[in-house]
């Protein structure tokens, strides 16, 4: 599955946040395919549509879809030089699909800051620089070889060389690969390079308890937002300490607690949804009386592939999919209602599944 890695300097609140993630963790019996790894936290993806479908269909059970976070401990200055833990750190980042960088935006004189003071931008730059240097090295290793081929009139090599030069220039200006503009064609070549700084980045501004309701007064958060805008990255504000407390509550208690604070959605839920979208993921539903369930697919996937998310047999034997949009199903109140209104479609092998589709697959065994 796709996973988002959590990184950050020491003492910024990573462990606190990761504990909140594992505490809130999904009931593993429902997700037997999930990795059992202490560094992986599985969370349910909050989705109000699933609750609404449950009300409509009244199934025996409801199963949300899940998302994985991976805890990547131990960034150290000099990681790109391959010293000690550094190499391991970078190889772990190479394996994740998106990066959530926790940034300290809270003051607390009892908690040491590695650089001596709270300075979120300097922290971000420290980590990003290691990633950029590692990418610069990969690009430099490749560029000479490709240049030679390009001179021999190898068209593909010339094409790649041009891309490598632009990347190198960005890296030398401390810019990550995700800020460089590429066409779709070029992007295919770039993807093959397995760069670290092409991965989508999300900054998790960790604020103090006092700032959680209204973070607009927190100047560090403002700084992170401005930085992220230039960095082609997103920002989510959380208070890891409060998230850790919330994660110990059950659903009812959590709702009451958030209401009391005047918050609509917990920071962790926002983080889960943001990371999910950052990875280009979307949700379709199956809605039967036995079970109403949300399933994750990558945007752009066709109906048979989406059926394969449930079971490989569904993909192999795919015939067609009865499909209705979530909105139509809610409007007409039931599958039959939607069918009578002509809103249920029979989609074939080429259908590109849309976020919110409610699907019933027909297949041969
Ligand atoms: P890590 O080294 O990045 O994993 O950081 P930890 O999660 O261990 O947090 C370091 C210290 O900061 C711990 O004492 C946490 O209790 C504290 N901490 C984490 N998040 C917050 C927060 O939002 N507010 C405050 N005041 N302290 C926090």
UniProtKB/TrEMBL annotation:
The keyword Lipid metabolism does not apply. InterPro entries: ATPase_YchF/OLA1, Beta-grasp_dom_sf, G_OBG, GTP-bd, P-loop_NTPase, TGS, TGS-like, TGS-like_dom_sf. Residues 2-258 form the OBG-type G domain. Its cofactor is Mg(2+). This is Ribosome-binding ATPase YchF. Keywords: ATP-binding, Magnesium, Metal-binding, Nucleotide-binding. The gene is ychF. It holds the Pfam family YchF-GTPase_C. ATP binds at residues 11-16. Coiled coil: none annotated.
């Amino acid at each position: 599955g796709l996973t988002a890695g959590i990184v950050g300097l020491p003492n910024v609140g990573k462990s606190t946040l990761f504990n909140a993630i594992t505490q809130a963790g999904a009931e593993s019996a429902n997700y037997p395919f999930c990795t059992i790894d202490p560094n992986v936290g599985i969370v349910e993806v909050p989705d109000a549509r699933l609750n609404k479908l449950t009300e409509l269909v009244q199934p025996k059970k409801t199963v949300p879809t899940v998302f994985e976070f991976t805890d990547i401990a131990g960034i150290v200055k000099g990681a790109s030089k391959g010293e000690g833990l550094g190499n391991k750190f970078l190889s772990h980042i190479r394996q994740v699909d998106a990066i959530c960088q926790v940034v300290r935006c809270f003051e607390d004189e009892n908690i040491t800051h590695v650089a001596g003071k709270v300075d979120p931008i300097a922290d971000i730059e420290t980590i990003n620089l290691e990633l950029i240097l590692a990418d610069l090295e990969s690009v430099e290793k490749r560029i000479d070889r490709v240049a030679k081929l390009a001179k021999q009139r190898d068209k593909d090599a010339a094409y790649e060389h041009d891309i490598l030069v632009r990347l190198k220039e960005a890296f030398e200006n401390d810019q990550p690969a995700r800020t460089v503009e590429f066409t779709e064609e070029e992007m295919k070549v770039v993807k093959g390079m397995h760069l670290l700084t092409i991965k989508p980045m999300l900054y998790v501004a960790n604020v103090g308890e006092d700032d959680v309701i209204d973070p607009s007064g927190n100047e560090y958060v403002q700084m992170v937002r401005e930085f992220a805008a230039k960095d082609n990255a997103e920002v989510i504000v959380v208070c890891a300490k409060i998230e850790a407390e919330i994660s110990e509550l059950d659903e009812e208690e959590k709702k009451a607690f958030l209401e009391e604070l005047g918050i609509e959605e917990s920071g962790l839920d926002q983080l889960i949804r943001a990371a999910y979208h950052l990875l280009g993921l979307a949700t379709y539903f199956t809605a039967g009386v036995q079970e109403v369930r949300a399933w994750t697919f990558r945007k752009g996937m066709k109906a048979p592939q989406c059926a394969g998310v449930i079971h490989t047999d569904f993909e192999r034997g795919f015939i067609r999919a009865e499909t209705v949009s979530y909105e139509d199903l809610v409007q007409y109140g039931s599958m039959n209602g939607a069918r009578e209104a002509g809103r249920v479609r029979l989609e074939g092998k080429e259908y590109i599944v849309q976020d919110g589709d409610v699907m019933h697959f027909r297949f041969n065994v």
